[in-house]
Amino acid sequence: MEVTAPRLDCSVIKNRLKKRYIWWNGWVFAAVLLLLVVCTPVFTLLTHLVSSPGTHWDQVGPKILDSYLKDTLILLVGVAFFTFLLGTSSAWLVSSYEFPGRKYLEWLLILPMAFPSYMMAYSYIGILEYTGPVHSFLRNSLGWEITGPLIDLMNLPGGIFIFSITLFPYVYLFARTSFVSSSREIQDAAALLGASPVRTFFSVALPMARPALAGGIALASMEVLNDYGTVKYFGLNTFTTGIFRAWLTLGDLDSAIKLAAILTTLVLALLWMEYYQRGNKRWSSKSGRTVPPHRICPSKPVQWVFTGVCLLIVLLGFLFPFSQLVYWAIKTAHKVIDASFGMIVVKSFSLAAGSSVLIVFMAIVLLYAVRVSGMHGMRYVTRIASLGYAIPGAVIAVGIMAPVIGFDKWLLRVAPLDGKLLLSSGLFMLLFAYLVRFMAVGYNAIDTGFQKAGKDINDASRMLGFNTWHTLWKVDLPLIRKSIAAALLSVFVDVIKELPLTLILRPFNFHTLATKAFDMATNEQIAESANASLIVILTGILPVVLLNRIIRKSH
Amino acid sequence: MPPVLELRNIAKTYPGGHRRAVDAISLEVEKGEILSLVGESGSGKTTLLRIIAGLEHPDEGSLVLSGQVITEGKKAVPPHKRNIGMVFQDYALFPHMTIAENVGFGLKGYSPTEKKKIIEETLALTGLEENLSRYPHQLSGGQQQRVALARALAPRPNILLLDEPFSNLDTVLHDRIREDLHKILKATGITTILVTHHTRDALSMADKVAVIYRGQLLQADTPRTIYRNPVSGYVANLFGKFSCIPYQTAVDGFKTPFGFIRSELRPASSSQTWLFFRPEQVKIVNEPNAPGPDILEGVVASSVFLGDYHRIVLKPTSDDPASQLTIHADVSYTPGTILRFYIDKVRTVDFGNA
Fold first, then answer.
1. Which residue of A137, A373, A477, B59 is surrounded by the most CB atoms within 10 Å?
2. Could you tell me the residue range of the domain that residue A390 belongs to?
3. How many CB atoms lie within 10 A of CB A53?
4. In a domain, A414, yes or no
5. What is the CATH number of the domain that holds A381?
6. Does any CB of chain B come closer than 8 Å to the CB of residue A281?
7. Which of A11, A13, A22 sits opposite B57 (nearest CB)?
8. Tens-digit pLDDT profile for residues B130-144
9. Does residue A342 lie within any of the structural domains?
10. Helix ranges, A97-227 (H)
11. Of residues A13, A376, A459, nearest to B55 (C-beta)
12. pTM of the model
């Protein structure tokens, strides 16, 4: 090769090079500030855990042991067991066996996720009530005389059923990913050593999926602790209903905070258990080769049994309750849909859009600080910001309310703004709360994007003379645009579905689709609530479908 | 003329690391020189490269670029102000930009026509003849590397850093690209620091080789000196097979288990020293019974075919199990054969315990 080169002789530097403190970095500063803000509610709770009890503590305190703790724990254990059972078995069937309709059932099984559990509850109460389809069928077609409810769901087992049928997709998704990605060679090795498919499942696939399953069950448990709509509707006494009762009925914020603090301790214990059981062990295969396991083709009758099992789960978890809602929605549309309903839709969507933009923006700041700071501890510190997802909405709500109201009262004393409350009257508290609660959703999506893009890309740009800010605009953001879109969508849907935070922190007479559906349902207008519910659920289906496509593509 | 880059006592420990990743390394790089940092993976050579780039910050020591201190204490010139070019191990091409956009990325303050000219010139220099509007993923590994090199060279950097430039290329491509790269670097006269774990690359490309082991600089010298006069057994072994045989000093030479070698060398007898030589220094004498000084004798213990040569291990004819030596031969020998040979330019070494 002939080389005729210009001499690249630039060894003399004309300008004086200016040194800067290595830790001085605007990104780090912004990230630390953001972390402090996001941690406010937890700080509030921790300080109240040891403070003197509120005025109505004598009414709240005694209920902790005999109902709040008991109901909460029974729900948690029941839901953990049934989500495990439903999620793992369905995931194993669709990932190891071939049977009619498997392709469709594979993603239909995720759809219950689109249902907020309280909407699932309304729908089932409707299905089983005296005028509902089941009763009518038994009465009119079979001529049975039944008085009273056929199955009473308004109790703890009913709650467990509703939660399990809505939340099992968490376990299903994690389990399926694990079963599909655990190396085919390992399962082949088990088979060659003479293990039957059943033994392979119990002694190889299931233990290897353990951390994933625990992760899925932990997420489902978080959702149970977060829920207010279902437990309120079923009249169960969990910590969340206790917090609501203390604050909204008794007006005792101190007692509410104290309950919230105890619940937070419970959550932290749960998180720790999940972390501890995972330990340092590696369950994934070292080779990193992930050939999907070939699916076994059982005999025809067995195949139809598998189809039947999966179909039954889909029917119970999605098709029945969804049809019921559609039926109601059509029947009541003329009564419900008017200008004010339209306003609620607009408000809901703009609130969700606004908060998703805010949250994703913050997540990018936080993770970009990790990326460019060069400090190895940064990554762990910023993780704190994503803990909000584990903290129940009601807890975050009271944790934010106390300092914000305190600030407003102080402001009122110092500079009275015509008796107006600056922060606690508008949407500020709600946005703040969404930021705390859904930061994890944005954080994880953006994190995945950055990880995929790799750190070298960023380094390369800076070596070519661009500072961190320009590098973000020219290199990083264009590369993670898909992750940004995914993050925006996930947060958007989560905000649309959100109930407990919105109920406590919304301004007076402000309604989102979720609070409207909740209001109507608790006022014995279940059928009328279906229109709002349906919009929420249809919005929720969108990311579920996309999520499934992403998982499929990556394998 | 001062060195282009000076490393003074650079040290770094990663949080949670058990030992220093880089341990008090001092080095100088002259203008237009190609320096190769050689070591096993995890030896700290890449960390050192990233410290020079400004992507990592050392705990101790300072860096001087063309007479200006750029890293010292808690202060440093950020990477984007250093005008140092870097080619990353996985190239780190921007996947969302075309070849032209990648190469032109670091060019600031030029008119579009000037920019285009520089891009074309630099790509021609690196020998890439491709449609400039193609994207990195449409290129082969070798082509991607040329784009990465052009991208790093286009802004006319003070120093060029290359991180394992050959690790992603197959063996066939490897040798050709190494020769091309050497030509390009020498043609441009750019000061280059090259990190590699292939000692062959280091020997053939570099003007100076720095051997790094567990964060420490063992030896920095010309490739020839490193190969022929290694300071320790580790360095000797890193660059190829070698033999060490014991000896006793006589009046006009050395008595060894394989025979007598005449030599003017008079090593200090204070410590345990050995005769050191590389396999290719050993020449087999084919004429049987040709008597003469310096002709040694050994029994073939094993003979292994390795493609372009046979590796023969010899034992002394007398019963001395401790010593053996390795030679390269064109033909194979059956074990038990007695071979006569002499050693070209033998020298003594004191490797201590290493």
1. A373
2. 11-47+337-507
3. 15
4. yes
5. 1.10.3720.10
6. no
7. A22
8. 788 999 999 988 899
9. yes
10. 102-108, 117-128, 133-136, 156-181, 184-192, 197-200, 206-226
11. A459
12. 0.84
